[in-house]
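Ticket #4471: structure output looks truncated?

Reporter: J.K.
Steps to reproduce: submitted the chain below (237 residues) through the standard prediction queue, then opened the result file.
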Amino acid sequence: MHTRFTLLLLLTVLLLPLLAQQEIAQPVLLNEGARVNLYFLSDAENGADSLMATDGGAPVYLLKGERGQHESRQVLLQVLPDGSAEPSATLTGGEGFDQIYNNSFEIIETGQPVTRHWLQPGAILGLHHVRLKPGTDQAAFERFIHNMWSPTQSDALPDSKIIFLRGISGERSGDFSFMWLIDSGETREYYFPQAGKPSQIYQDFERGWAWINDDDNLGKYVDDTQGDEYTDFIVVR
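Returned output as attached by the reporter:
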Protein backbone atom coordinates (compact mmCIF):
# COMPACT_ATOMS: atom_id res chain seq x y z
CA MET A 1 0.00 0.00 0.00
CA HIS A 2 2.81 2.36 0.90
CA THR A 3 4.51 1.65 -2.43
CA ARG A 4 1.28 2.32 -4.38
CA PHE A 5 0.75 5.62 -2.58
CA THR A 6 4.32 6.65 -3.32
CA LEU A 7 3.87 5.87 -7.03
CA LEU A 8 0.62 7.85 -7.19
CA LEU A 9 2.26 10.80 -5.50
CA LEU A 10 5.20 10.65 -7.91
CA LEU A 11 2.88 10.53 -10.93
CA THR A 12 0.94 13.51 -9.62
CA VAL A 13 4.12 15.54 -9.18
CA LEU A 14 5.24 14.62 -12.71
CA LEU A 15 1.87 15.38 -14.32
CA LEU A 16 1.25 18.77 -12.71
CA PRO A 17 3.72 20.66 -14.95
CA LEU A 18 2.20 18.97 -18.03
CA LEU A 19 -1.32 19.94 -16.99
CA ALA A 20 -0.17 23.50 -16.38
CA GLN A 21 1.36 23.61 -19.87
CA GLN A 22 -1.93 22.41 -21.36
CA GLU A 23 -3.76 25.13 -19.48
CA ILE A 24 -1.39 27.80 -20.81
CA ALA A 25 -1.46 26.32 -24.30
CA GLN A 26 -5.23 26.74 -24.70
CA PRO A 27 -5.95 29.06 -27.64
CA VAL A 28 -6.54 32.65 -26.61
CA LEU A 29 -9.53 34.20 -28.35
CA LEU A 30 -10.39 37.88 -28.73
CA ASN A 31 -7.02 39.10 -29.90
CA GLU A 32 -6.51 42.16 -32.08
CA GLY A 33 -7.30 41.40 -35.72
CA ALA A 34 -9.75 38.63 -34.81
CA ARG A 35 -13.25 38.67 -36.25
CA VAL A 36 -16.32 38.55 -34.01
CA ASN A 37 -19.55 37.38 -35.69
CA LEU A 38 -22.98 37.72 -34.06
CA TYR A 39 -25.96 35.76 -35.41
CA PHE A 40 -29.38 36.57 -33.94
CA LEU A 41 -31.71 33.58 -33.79
CA SER A 42 -35.20 34.30 -35.09
CA ASP A 43 -37.95 34.46 -32.47
CA ALA A 44 -39.38 31.15 -33.66
CA GLU A 45 -36.03 29.35 -33.76
CA ASN A 46 -35.40 26.83 -30.99
CA GLY A 47 -32.79 24.68 -32.71
CA ALA A 48 -29.68 26.37 -31.33
CA ASP A 49 -27.92 23.02 -30.89
CA SER A 50 -27.99 22.18 -34.59
CA LEU A 51 -26.95 25.68 -35.59
CA MET A 52 -23.98 25.58 -33.21
CA ALA A 53 -22.34 22.85 -35.34
CA THR A 54 -19.27 24.46 -36.91
CA ASP A 55 -17.93 21.87 -39.35
CA GLY A 56 -14.76 21.63 -37.27
CA GLY A 57 -14.18 25.39 -37.35
CA ALA A 58 -13.93 27.97 -34.58
CA PRO A 59 -16.19 27.34 -31.57
CA VAL A 60 -19.64 28.88 -31.32
CA TYR A 61 -21.12 30.26 -28.09
CA LEU A 62 -24.80 30.68 -27.23
CA LEU A 63 -25.65 34.02 -25.63
CA LYS A 64 -28.91 35.36 -24.24
CA GLY A 65 -29.77 39.03 -23.79
CA GLU A 66 -30.30 39.99 -20.15
CA ARG A 67 -30.43 43.77 -20.16
CA GLY A 68 -30.74 46.48 -22.75
CA GLN A 69 -31.80 46.65 -26.40
CA HIS A 70 -31.93 42.91 -27.16
CA GLU A 71 -33.13 41.61 -23.80
CA SER A 72 -34.22 37.93 -24.01
CA ARG A 73 -32.89 37.50 -27.57
CA GLN A 74 -30.72 34.45 -28.28
CA VAL A 75 -27.52 35.03 -30.24
CA LEU A 76 -24.77 32.78 -31.55
CA LEU A 77 -21.26 34.20 -31.29
CA GLN A 78 -18.34 32.90 -33.33
CA VAL A 79 -14.83 34.30 -32.96
CA LEU A 80 -12.40 33.71 -35.81
CA PRO A 81 -8.91 34.37 -34.39
CA ASP A 82 -7.66 34.84 -37.94
CA GLY A 83 -9.70 37.68 -39.41
CA SER A 84 -9.32 36.25 -42.91
CA ALA A 85 -10.89 32.89 -41.94
CA GLU A 86 -14.38 32.07 -43.18
CA PRO A 87 -17.27 31.58 -40.73
CA SER A 88 -19.10 28.28 -40.58
CA ALA A 89 -21.38 27.61 -43.55
CA THR A 90 -24.06 26.60 -41.04
CA LEU A 91 -24.10 30.12 -39.65
CA THR A 92 -24.08 31.93 -42.97
CA GLY A 93 -26.79 29.78 -44.57
CA GLY A 94 -29.47 32.16 -43.35
CA GLU A 95 -32.10 29.75 -42.04
CA GLY A 96 -33.21 30.33 -38.47
CA PHE A 97 -31.59 33.77 -38.17
CA ASP A 98 -32.92 37.30 -37.94
CA GLN A 99 -30.65 38.64 -40.67
CA ILE A 100 -31.27 42.32 -40.03
CA TYR A 101 -29.31 42.24 -36.77
CA ASN A 102 -26.45 39.94 -37.81
CA ASN A 103 -23.12 41.73 -37.64
CA SER A 104 -19.41 41.08 -38.03
CA PHE A 105 -16.77 43.10 -36.21
CA GLU A 106 -12.99 43.29 -36.20
CA ILE A 107 -11.18 43.63 -32.88
CA ILE A 108 -9.05 46.76 -33.15
CA GLU A 109 -7.82 47.20 -29.55
CA THR A 110 -7.67 45.03 -26.44
CA GLY A 111 -5.51 47.04 -24.07
CA GLN A 112 -3.25 44.54 -22.35
CA PRO A 113 -2.96 41.27 -24.33
CA VAL A 114 -5.84 38.87 -23.69
CA THR A 115 -4.65 35.96 -21.54
CA ARG A 116 -7.98 34.89 -20.06
CA HIS A 117 -10.83 32.86 -21.52
CA TRP A 118 -13.67 35.33 -21.05
CA LEU A 119 -16.42 33.33 -22.78
CA GLN A 120 -17.12 30.88 -19.97
CA PRO A 121 -20.76 29.99 -19.16
CA GLY A 122 -22.19 32.60 -16.82
CA ALA A 123 -19.91 35.39 -18.03
CA ILE A 124 -21.39 38.68 -19.23
CA LEU A 125 -20.67 40.18 -22.65
CA GLY A 126 -21.93 43.73 -22.81
CA LEU A 127 -22.06 44.97 -26.41
CA HIS A 128 -22.05 48.78 -26.52
CA HIS A 129 -22.40 50.81 -29.72
CA VAL A 130 -20.67 54.17 -30.10
CA ARG A 131 -22.51 57.05 -31.79
CA LEU A 132 -20.11 59.55 -33.30
CA LYS A 133 -20.93 63.22 -33.80
CA PRO A 134 -21.66 64.20 -37.42
CA GLY A 135 -18.49 64.99 -39.34
CA THR A 136 -16.20 63.14 -36.92
CA ASP A 137 -12.84 62.12 -38.40
CA GLN A 138 -13.04 58.35 -37.88
CA ALA A 139 -9.28 57.85 -38.26
CA ALA A 140 -8.69 60.44 -35.53
CA PHE A 141 -11.25 58.74 -33.30
CA GLU A 142 -9.60 55.36 -33.80
CA ARG A 143 -6.25 56.89 -32.80
CA PHE A 144 -8.00 58.22 -29.69
CA ILE A 145 -9.15 54.68 -28.87
CA HIS A 146 -5.61 53.32 -29.20
CA ASN A 147 -3.83 56.18 -27.42
CA MET A 148 -6.28 57.32 -24.75
CA TRP A 149 -9.54 55.41 -24.28
CA SER A 150 -8.22 51.86 -24.21
CA PRO A 151 -5.17 52.58 -22.02
CA THR A 152 -7.50 54.30 -19.55
CA GLN A 153 -10.35 51.77 -19.39
CA SER A 154 -9.65 48.41 -21.07
CA ASP A 155 -8.13 46.94 -17.91
CA ALA A 156 -9.32 49.39 -15.25
CA LEU A 157 -11.83 47.21 -13.37
CA PRO A 158 -11.03 43.89 -11.66
CA ASP A 159 -12.59 40.83 -13.32
CA SER A 160 -13.63 42.78 -16.40
CA LYS A 161 -12.14 43.89 -19.70
CA ILE A 162 -13.13 46.29 -22.48
CA ILE A 163 -12.30 45.34 -26.08
CA PHE A 164 -12.87 47.77 -28.96
CA LEU A 165 -14.45 46.81 -32.28
CA ARG A 166 -15.03 48.18 -35.77
CA GLY A 167 -18.01 46.89 -37.76
CA ILE A 168 -17.06 45.20 -41.02
CA SER A 169 -20.46 43.92 -42.21
CA GLY A 170 -24.12 44.16 -41.28
CA GLU A 171 -26.02 47.16 -39.98
CA ARG A 172 -23.00 48.26 -37.90
CA SER A 173 -20.56 48.24 -40.81
CA GLY A 174 -18.10 51.10 -40.39
CA ASP A 175 -19.30 51.91 -36.87
CA PHE A 176 -17.34 51.56 -33.63
CA SER A 177 -18.46 49.44 -30.69
CA PHE A 178 -16.93 47.82 -27.66
CA MET A 179 -17.41 44.61 -25.72
CA TRP A 180 -17.44 44.97 -21.96
CA LEU A 181 -16.56 41.51 -20.68
CA ILE A 182 -17.29 40.64 -17.03
CA ASP A 183 -16.47 37.29 -15.48
CA SER A 184 -19.93 36.68 -13.92
CA GLY A 185 -23.35 38.11 -13.24
CA GLU A 186 -22.35 38.58 -9.60
CA THR A 187 -19.44 40.82 -10.59
CA ARG A 188 -21.66 42.78 -13.00
CA GLU A 189 -24.18 43.39 -10.22
CA TYR A 190 -21.35 44.43 -7.90
CA TYR A 191 -20.66 47.25 -10.37
CA PHE A 192 -24.24 47.74 -11.68
CA PRO A 193 -26.93 46.36 -9.32
CA GLN A 194 -29.55 47.58 -11.81
CA ALA A 195 -29.32 48.51 -15.48
CA GLY A 196 -27.90 52.00 -15.81
CA LYS A 197 -27.47 52.42 -12.05
CA PRO A 198 -23.82 52.12 -10.98
CA SER A 199 -22.91 51.04 -7.46
CA GLN A 200 -20.95 53.28 -5.14
CA ILE A 201 -17.90 51.07 -5.75
CA TYR A 202 -18.15 51.67 -9.51
CA GLN A 203 -18.65 55.42 -9.01
CA ASP A 204 -15.50 55.51 -6.89
CA PHE A 205 -13.58 53.82 -9.73
CA GLU A 206 -15.16 56.13 -12.31
CA ARG A 207 -13.98 59.28 -10.59
CA GLY A 208 -10.42 58.26 -11.37
CA TRP A 209 -11.02 58.48 -15.14
CA ALA A 210 -13.76 61.15 -15.26
CA TRP A 211 -11.48 63.34 -17.36
CA ILE A 212 -11.80 60.92 -20.31
CA ASN A 213 -15.40 62.13 -20.84
CA ASP A 214 -14.64 65.86 -21.11
CA ASP A 215 -14.95 67.92 -24.30
CA ASP A 216 -11.29 67.55 -25.19
CA ASN A 217 -11.48 63.76 -25.11
CA LEU A 218 -14.56 61.53 -25.64
CA GLY A 219 -16.83 64.56 -25.75
CA LYS A 220 -14.97 65.72 -28.85
CA TYR A 221 -16.08 62.65 -30.82
CA VAL A 222 -19.01 60.86 -29.18
CA ASP A 223 -22.68 61.89 -29.20
CA ASP A 224 -24.13 60.65 -25.90
CA THR A 225 -27.32 62.72 -26.00
CA GLN A 226 -29.45 59.62 -26.73
CA GLY A 227 -28.05 57.47 -23.94
CA ASP A 228 -26.12 54.21 -24.11
CA GLU A 229 -27.16 51.77 -26.84
CA TYR A 230 -26.19 48.37 -25.48
CA THR A 231 -27.16 44.81 -24.63
CA ASP A 232 -25.79 42.73 -21.79
CA PHE A 233 -25.64 39.09 -22.94
CA ILE A 234 -24.98 36.16 -20.64
CA VAL A 235 -22.92 33.27 -22.01
CA VAL A 236 -25.25 30.26 -21.79
CA ARG A 237 -22.80 27.73 -23.24
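Triage note (M.O.): checked the attachment and the full C-alpha coordinate line is present. Residues 4-25 have pLDDT under 50 and may be disordered.
Status: closed, working as intended.
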